[in-house]
Amino acid sequence: MSNINSYRRKFLIGVTGTAAAVTLAPGVFLRQVQAKANDEAVSDKVRWGMLIDVNKLEDGGDACIEACKKEHGWGNEEHSSDLQDAQWIRKVKVTEKMTGKAMSLPVMCQHCETAPCIDVCPTGASMKRPDGIVQVNKHVCIGCRYCMMACPYKARSFIHETLTDQRPGTPRGKGTVESCNMCVNRVDAGKNPACVDAAPKAMLFGDLNDPESKISKVLKKYGGTQIRADLGLNTGVRYWGI
Questions:
Q1: How many whole angstroms separate alpha carbon 171 and alpha carbon 125?
Q2: How confident is the model at residue 194 (pLDDT cuts 50, 70, 90)?
Q3: DSSP SS3 for 213
Q4: Residues of the chain with pLDDT > 70: what percent?
Q5: CB 204 within 8 A of CB 236
Q6: What is the mean pLDDT of the segment spanning 162-181?
Q7: Where are the domains of the chain?
Q8: Neighbouring residues of 91: CB distance < 8 A, sequence distance ≥ 6
Q9: Which of 75, 160, 194, 225 has its CA 20 to 30 A from that of 39?
């Protein structure tokens, strides 16, 4: 166990940052945030989060999904069953029973503060960086899939086949579990997650711990909805319009 903890400490080292300029509500703009120095470790002073306005997703999230596939190289594998398809991010259709109103929204790892996937992982492969980004350490994952059963958002999938189309910033491997990592490779380089850049009018990314960040100000003024808020997981992804 000490070797695993030592590896996890090394794996957690990185840098944080983001940059964006979008509008979610009248008069609300996301300020630009510069990336930290490359030799500065990830800090719990920051907690990255995302706000999604489903009413401004004209395609229901299709552009977000395609951007995620392009960034991380998933979705091109051939499977014997659709149930085995990777699902870093997927489009979910929701219908209000009373009014019949239907809407589509993208659902990915919700980057919970209290993540069930981490609680059940026997090796420490499911982990959360100090800045709130939940990841899977592919070098430690043994493919038991306990995390998949524990996740209430069905945000994780298992790799069944040998992969050939790998992306340098996204480790993937047969026999391991994978899920949205909030484009940690982009965040550490001072960029937005790919899905946010694909839908800039509908998605906002920033530091939830900073009361002066635009995402914090928007959430304080207009609020935001968590999927399955009753579970008390304090998700890093919030929604409008659901």
A1: 13
A2: very high
A3: coil
A4: 80
A5: no
A6: 87
A7: 2-240
A8: 60, 61, 62, 65, 104, 105, 106, 107
A9: 194
The residue type of 11 is F
Distance of CA 232 to the CA centre of its chain: 18
Q: Average pLDDT for residues 174-188, to the nearest whole number?
A: 94
Which backbone phi and psi does 70 adopt, to 5 degrees? -65, -40
The string of pLDDT tens digits covering residues 92-132 is 988 888 888 888 899 999 999 999 999 999 999 999 999 99
Cα–Cα distance, 116 to 105 (Å, whole number): 22
Residue 95's SS3 state is: strand
Tokens 């951007």: give the residue: 67
CA dihedral 150, 154, 155, 161 (to 10 degrees): 100
Q: What is the DSSP letter of 27?
A: T
Please tell me the distance from the alpha carbon of residue 15 to that of residue 91, in angstroms, as a whole number.
Answer: 30
Question: What's the rounded mean pLDDT across residues 28-47?
Answer: 61
> Cα separation of 135 and 13, whole Å?
13
Q: Which CATH number is 2-240's, of 3.20.20.370, 3.30.70.20, 1.10.1740.10, 3.10.20.310?
A: 3.30.70.20
Q: In the chain, at which residue ranges do the beta strands (DSSP E only) sit? A: 23-25, 28-29, 48-53, 89-95, 102-108, 126-128, 134-136, 157-158, 177-178, 203-207, 237-240
Residues in the chain, overall count: 242
> Which residue reads 């949205």 in tokens?
180
Backbone angle region of 69, left / alpha / beta, with phi > 0 → left and psi within -120 to 50 → alpha: alpha
Strand pairing category for 203-207 and 157-158: unpaired
pLDDT tens across 38-83, in order? 556 788 899 999 999 999 998 889 999 999 999 998 887 666 666 6
